[in-house]
Q: What sequence folds into this?
């Protein structure tokens, strides 16, 4: 389990005080930027309850498309399973799910673009939940399952 926690720590980007390390944050411009953490796929495919947590500060005007995804879990051939991101219009957090092949959750509260925002998406049993800055944004019944060959 310790290696799972270590791997998840690299993925989650959950920080106690994001303002204190502002100069050390990742600055992704949206053009083929990614952080590869495929080492978690081998352990995550058998886990039924899990969470993804990250901090984001978005410039919504820079989005080329209607949504920008911060976290994506893809099949070994590159297809999307589940993606967590933000809508350009209003800054609402969103979850895209392969089961519905569309956005499964659209949040009800927009990001504050002037500061860092904390997004949490977690699955427990047969339901998944989305939170923004501690405020519930919505739920869905996931239509995806993980494989040990997924790309994170």
A:
């Amino acid at each position: 389990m310790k290696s799972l926690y270590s791997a998840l720590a690299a993925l989650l980007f959950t920080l106690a005080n994001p303002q204190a390390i502002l100069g050390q944050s990742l600055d992704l411009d949206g053009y083929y930027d990614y952080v590869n953490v495929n080492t978690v796929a081998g352990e995550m495919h058998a886990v039924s309850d899990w969470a993804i947590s990250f901090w984001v500060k978005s410039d919504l005007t820079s989005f080329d498309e209607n949504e920008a995804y911060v976290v994506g879990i893809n099949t070994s051939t590159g297809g999307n399973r589940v993606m967590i991101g933000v809508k350009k219009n209003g800054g609402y957090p969103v979850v895209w799910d392969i089961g519905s092949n569309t956005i499964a959750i659209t949040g009800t509260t927009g990001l504050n673009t002037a500061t860092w925002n904390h997004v949490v998406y977690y699955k427990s049993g047969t339901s998944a939940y989305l939170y923004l800055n501690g405020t519930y944004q919505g739920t869905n019944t996931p239509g995806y399952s993980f494989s040990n060959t997924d790309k994170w």
In short: The CA atoms of residues 27 and 114 lie 15 Å apart. The longest helix spans residues 2-12. Residues 2-15+29-140 form a domain with the Jelly Rolls fold (CATH 2.60.120.200).
